[in-house]
Design a protein that fits this description.
Blueprint (H helix, E strand, L loop, with lengths): L2 H12 L9 H12 L4 H33 L4 H21 L3 H22 L5 E4 L2 E7 L2 E3 L2 H22 L5 H5 L2 H14 L3 H17 L4 H21 L1 H11 L10 H13 L24 H34 L3 H25 L17 H18 L5 H8 L3 H8 L8
Antiparallel strand pairs: 1-2, 2-3
């Protein structure tokens, strides 16, 4: 009588085919072991970037199709432009992933100077173009460039290079050598962006600055002083522009004025709420039918929530969470000071920008008008973001054991395809 239950228990333990079934504790240990592999950061950055890019291209098409069909006669106008920017940015990402540290450090100061010059041109009458209350773009014929986006990458590279040099010279023990000339350089970028009334980018630049100081171990009283200065600057920006004051009051009282300055936020929340658990289906959303302004840029997360539901939004949050984990893992595991600082600065930039964008859409933060990285429409934001991710891939290769793991992996798909065509190197 007891033989049959015992045999069934043995089959349950072995899976019925004689093979031992791993216990839950062993399964958890195996999953944790995957995160300890040398190339974990590399594959996380690459995988999250590819999935967010694919989702972004799909949602730009969905969010912009109705409006573009009305205005241009083609539903594919913006998605074709986004695909073009991706075609430019992806080779830049690949090149950055293969660039040595000397290359990044050599580009740091020239990129900062170029960013300052471009941000200055934005303020020149006739060149700068305003939209949504902020002067952010340079008009060069049919091309619109937003210099504040590459300025973020410039600040990451220059700040990391500067602090790495100071760390090597032992100049980070006192606050004066620590802040000079990092504070004036970052302050100049912030000032130029503030003159263009771009509060969202101002906050992201300040986030990069604070992240760099945090990594080098700046004293807590320094952060308190800088936080007070930032609060003062933000208060000035809000007071001097009536539309920002309206956004702030609308954020504090989201139930009022839903047909005026609370209109965009309320429509975004309605789009999210109408998606339910699994969404209305790709392309089936109603908010993009002239109800939700800037659906393909600032509020594309609302379209994701409407068409893919709560599940879709959690997937996006999960991808950015994995990207944050990978970036911080790189910063923690590498030994070079410049690599550690640049990885932390770039991760803070991308993750905080995503948090600010998503927070504005779900109503827990005021609307600032900054895009969702890799997902929102816009080449000026997409290309620097892809280069920054390529930089993280290059840094991930410098983690302990990563180069050996890459060498053991053998040639990649591109190298194998080239060798099949007779275009690869001999012996590949």
């Amino acid at each position: 009588m007891s033989a049959v239950p015992a045999r069934e228990r043995d089959q349950a333990k072995t899976g019925g085919d004689g093979a031992a079934r791993p216990r839950p504790r062993e399964q958890v240990a195996a999953a944790v072991g995957l995160l300890d592999r040398p190339l974990t950061s590399y594959y996380l950055v690459l995988g999250c970037s590819v999935m967010l890019l694919g989702l972004g291209l799909t949602m730009v098409l969905s969010a912009s199709s109705v409006k573009q069909l009305q205005e241009t006669g083609s539903a594919y106008t913006l998605v074709q432009k986004q695909a073009m920017w991706m075609a430019i940015g992806l080779p830049g990402m690949w090149a950055a992933s293969r660039l040595p540290l000397k290359g990044f450090r050599a580009l740091a100061f020239p990129m900062l100077l170029l960013s300052v010059a471009a941000l200055t041109l934005v303020l020149v009458p006739g060149l700068g173009r305003a939209a949504g209350g902020a002067t952010r773009w340079i008009s060069l014929g049919p091309i619109q460039i937003q210099p504040s986006e590459p300025a973020k990458l410039g600040l990451v590279l220059w700040g990391a290079d500067l602090l790495a040099r100071k760390e090597r010279l032992g100049q980070l023990t006192e606050w004066r050598p620590l802040l000079m000339p990092l504070l004036p350089g970052a302050g100049l970028l912030v000032l130029l962006v503030m003159l263009g009334n771009d509060l969202g980018t101002t906050l992201v630049l300040l986030t990069i600055f604070l992240a760099l100081l945090w990594v080098v171990g700046a004293p807590g009283r320094l952060f308190v002083g800088i936080a007070g200065l930032v609060s003062l600057l933000v208060s000035i920006l809000i007071v001097v522009e009536p539309y920002r004051m309206q956004r702030l009051t609308g954020f504090l009282d989201q139930s009022g004025n839903q047909l005026t300055f609370n209109y965009q936020g309320s429509q975004g929340l309605q789009a999210l709420a109408s998606g339910g658990l699994f969404g209305t289906g790709l392309g089936e959303g109603r908010a993009k039918w002239d109800f939700l302004p800037h659906a393909e840029t600032d509020f594309i997360f609302a379209i994701i929530g409407e068409e893919f539901g709560l599940v879709g939004t959690l997937v996006v949050l999960g991808l950015f969470g994995l990207l944050a984990y990978a970036g911080l893992r790189i910063a923690r595991r590498v030994k070079d000071p410049f690599t550690r600082l640049a990885a932390a600065g770039a991760t803070a930039w991308l993750v905080v920008q995503a948090i600010v964008n998503i927070g504005a859409v779900i109503g827990v933060l005021p609307i600032t008008g900054i895009p969702l990285p890799l997902v929102s429409y816009g080449g000026s934001a997409l290309i620097p973001t892809l280069i920054a991710l390529g930089m993280l891939l290059a840094f991930a290769k410098r983690e302990p054991g990563a180069r050996q793991a890459l060498a053991a992996r053998g040639p990649g798909p591109l190298s194998r395809a080239l060798s099949w065509l007779g275009l690869g190197p001999r012996g590949s």
